[in-house]
Each structure stands twice: as C-alpha cells, then as structure tokens.
Input
Amino acid sequence: MKVVFIEDVEGVALGGEVKEVKNGFARNYLIPKNLAAPATHNNLQRIHKLTKDAAVSRAHRLDEMKTLATSLDGSEISIEMRAGSNNRLYGSVTGTMVADALSEEKGIAIERRLVQLDEPIREVGTYDVPLRLFADVNASIKVTVYATGTDPFEMVAEEEDPSQDDTDQESDEEENLNSTELQEESSVPEEDELSKEDSEETPQG
Output
C-alpha cells in the first residue's frame, strides 16, 4: 500500500514522504496511530503542508529529547534478582526491565526501544547502559543488578574501591618482610661475642 507519512517514523520515513509499505503495517499500525494516511489524491495535495508540519514536530521532539537526555544521563538504578553463589542470575535482566525501573525511578515513561541493551544481563554487577533518545541524542545510565537479600550499595562500594584488596596484600607482604628481617638479624652473632671467641682462641704469650 502506498501511504503519505504524516509524522516521522524512525527507520521508515520522514513526515511528508510517500512510500510503499506492507498492507498490514499500514492498516494495523501506521494509519490507526495517525502516522500515515493512504496516498489518495487529496492527501497527495497536502504533502507540502505535511512536510512542514512534520519538520515543526521534529524540532519540538528534538528539544524534548535533549532535555530528557540531560535529566537521565548519569542516572543510577538498582534491580534485584535471584542469583546463585557464582553470581549468575536465575533468569536475566532485559531492556524492558531496565526501562521499567528507570521509569519508576524518574516518574516518567521510558520506552523499551530507547534502551540500547545488546543482550540481557545474566550476572550480578554494575553495567553502563546507553540510551538512544533521538537522532544524535544519547545518554548513559548505570544499572546495578544485585542478588536478593544483599545490599546493592555495599556491592557498588566494593566495585568502586578495589584498592582495599591491594592494601591488605601490601600489609601482608610488609609483615612477611619484617618477619624475614628479624630472623636474619637473630642469626648473625653479635660483635661482642665474636670478639670474645677470637680472644679465647688466641695463644697467650
């Protein structure tokens, strides 16, 4: 079916464009949502106005998404999941779950398609998840997936301060070094004892 696009449809067409699409796509999605209309004579006469209106709508949408990106960028959310002792999840965290958690955190509706999660998260940890809000408008959030019954804040603190293990290791190494030095010192005869032994071995004249 040939249709005239009333609004931009990402990855398909811009408002004002005339394109041939599948009948089902047009009748079940584009036309009911008022994103496109059949390419009748009257609608084709309206192309100039549709193109102009779509450009205005696009600019408005761009401003909205830039504001949203500023609000979302750097946000942190936590998702609780059941996990085994090896930190593997019983299940996985999907893009839909991330979108829902972010929507609840921010109090605004975030669509699943905006979350650019290449594959579901299957292990406990903290992940950087990109958001694609609009053409050339992106943001990034941190998603902490933690096991049921644990504290997500403690896990984040441990991940952010790996130096604690290094400090403990350095303390052990220093303690071992000091112990070795003490053993070496105790095995060296004192100077007075050596002198005494020398004098006893020297024949008397």
